Amino acid sequence: MFTEERYQLIKDLLQEQNIVKMQDIVQVTGSSESTIRRDLSALEEKGVLIRVHGGAKRGYKLQTEPEMEIKSNLNMDEKRLIAKRAADFIENDDVLFLDAGSTTYEMIPFLQGKKITVVTNGVPHASLLADLRIPTILLGGKIKLETKAIIGSTCLGQLEGYRFNKVFLGMNGIDSEFGFTTPDIEEAAIKAKAVEHGARKYVLADSSKFGVVSFAKVADLADCDVISVGLDERKRKRLEQETTYWEAKV
């Protein structure tokens, strides 16, 4: 087995179990203990894992927040497929919360013509919704310059008085151990409040968000359905053990 293949198998095992014994890795890869020790050392240097007595445990680096313009240009094909699938869940007379994420932004063209009301904390979202003549409530508060999301106590206070048929959220990290996470504490608070006040909650996430951990927790995986596309079978089955997963069709 090639080195990169062993590395990927070790990463997959750690995603599933968080802690893996040396003997289990030896058995799965068919390699010697000395080879696996070298692999673990190399992966530890890369920050993938932390070596422990008799094996390894998963390591992670906290994800930072890219600016909205950068996020909007990443994984665009996946995001549009996910957004279209998410819009399929919307019914006439729904009141929605649309989070200030780049994938939720891609939902907006698919909302045109629906008899709905949208509440959002995304400044670009509100602008496009208004252009498409979709009834919209833009929450007030402080604008986060990097993402153009509205955050803070004023926004949170407004959300306290609202209830939603459906909530659609973007997320920076989705992990079986740490749940849904995002880098900013104040954005996490807004997302968490929307989850609390929604009858149905959906997290829209492209494949790059899985196995990623950010600073602030929003919710457990069981609290929201997940809509994505192109997950490998191992990740999909693991996710389906934790929550409801919806595949966006290519």
Walkthrough of the structure:
The chain has 250 residues and is of the alpha/beta class. The protein is built from ten helices and 15 strands. It has a seven-stranded parallel β-sheet, sandwiched between helices. Strands 1-3-2 form a three-stranded antiparallel β-sheet. Helix 7 links the parallel strand 5 (117-120) and strand 6. Helix 8 packs parallel to helix 9 (185-196). The protein is elongated, with a radius of gyration of 20 Å. The protein starts with a helix and ends with a strand. The model has no long low-confidence stretch (mean pLDDT 91).
Structural topology:
Layout: H1 3-17, E1 19-21, H2 22-29, H3 33-45, E2 49-52, E3 55-58, H4 68-72, H5 76-87, E4 95-98, H6 102-105, E5 117-120, H7 123-131, E6 136-138, E7 142-144, E8 149-151, H8 153-160, E9 164-170, E10 173-175, E11 179-182, H9 185-196, E12 198-204, E13 216-219, E14 225-228, H10 233-242, E15 245-247
Features:
single chain; 250 residues; alpha/beta; seven-stranded parallel sheet; 15 strands
Strand order of the largest sheet: 6-5-4-9-12-14-15
Shape: elongated
Q: What is the succession of H and E elements?
A: HEHHEEHHEHEHEEEHEEEHEEEHE
Coarse structural class: alpha/beta
Residue fraction in strands: 15-25%
Radius of gyration: 20 Å
Total count of strands: 15
Helix content: 25-40%
Biggest beta sheet summary: 7 strands, parallel
Instruction: Indicate the mean pLDDT.
Output: 91
> First CA to last CA: what distance?
32 Å
Indicate the low-confidence ranges by residue numbers: none
Helix segment count? 10
